[in-house]
Amino acid sequence: DADVTQTPRNRITKTGKRIMLECSQTKGHDRMYWYRQDPGLGLRLIYYSFDVKDINKGEISDGYSVSRQAQAKFSLSLESAIPNQTALYFCATSDRQGADEQFFGPGTRLTVL
Amino acid sequence: GDSVTQMEGPVTLSEEAFLTINCTYTATGYPSLFWYVQYPGEGLQLLLKATKADDKGSNKGFEATYRKETTSFHLEKGSVQVSDSAVYFCALSGKTSYDKVIFGPGTSLSVIP
User: Fold this and answer.
1) Tens digit of pLDDT for each residue in B73-92?
2) What are A37's strand-pairing partners?
3) How far apart are CA A61 and CA A35, in angstroms?
4) Mean pLDDT in each 10-residue stretch from start to end of chain A (113 residues)?
5) Interface contact B99-A105, CB threshold 8 A
6) What's the CA gap between B93 and A101, in Å, rounded?
7) In chain A, which residues have their Cβ closer than 8 Å to the Cβ of B31?
8) Which of A53, A67, B87, B94 is 20 to 30 Å from B54 by CA-CA measure?
9) CA-CA distance, B31 to B37, in Å (whole number)?
10) How many angstroms separate the CA of residue B89 from the nearest CA in chain A?
11) Residue B74 CA to chain centroid, in angstroms?
12) Can you give the pLDDT at residue A41?
């Protein structure tokens, strides 16, 4: 079984809809991250969490919110989706000791019409 | 702030050709440097890393040497295979990035038989 899972894997939605992307991990890591990937831009950090009570904005947090429900779960929400949020979204984890290596989920492809 | 620059792709090579993907960085102090690889339809996974100047990271026939004097971490492989077709990301984790990883834009590699 995969260590970092994301649901759904694909989602098509309409402008203005609220969307939640979920991430679960079985690695026992404290740190979790949400990124979006756009062609030619690499990965950009949306939010990150170093433990259940710690949530931090990344470089592109506007229009997004997150919830860390447990050590193993980190959800990303788009409160009112817009077309330029169409992208590939990745969840990642790292542990406190080896914080520099990150472990990625398979990604969620989101299309906002 | 910290940043990573990579050569633009896509790169197309014939099987058994020599591969170089250039990467340069800007960071304060002594960051850790990484190469991540993303195979089609998958999340990123760590390919290799180096944590101090002159270190050489290696894995699966790929190598990269941490060159502080030229702020570079170029990825090389002596003989590529079709299975190496993927997107390669150079990344760093430095003192000013608060344990976050900064990714380059990625370089797409296609290896043809």
Assistant:
1) 999 999 999 999 999 999 99
2) A43, A88
3) 10
4) 90 97 95 91 91 92 95 96 96 75 93 96
5) no
6) 9
7) none
8) B87
9) 19
10) 8
11) 6
12) 80
Owner of token pair 């850790």: B32
In the block, which residue shows the tokens 């003192």? B95
Query: Edge-to-edge, what's the strand order for the sheet holding A64-70?
Result: A4-7, A19-25, A73-78, A64-70
Flag if A100 and B100 touch (Cβ within 8 Å): no
Contact A40 B99 (CB under 8 A): no
Residue pair B78/B18 in contact (Cβ under 8 Å)? The answer is: yes
Residue pair A75/A66 in contact (Cβ under 8 Å)? The answer is yes
Task: Tell me whether residues A100 and B105 touch, CB distance under 8 A.
Answer: no
Q: Does residue B69 belong to the interface with chain A, where contact is any CB pair within 8 Å? A: no
Q: Which among A103, A51, A64 has a CA at the least distance from the CA of B36?
A: A103
**Residues 6+ away with beta carbon under 8 Å from A9:** A106, A107, A108, A109
Q: Is some CB atom of chain A closer than 8 A to the CB atom of B105?
A: yes
The encoded tokens of residue B46 equal 């760590």
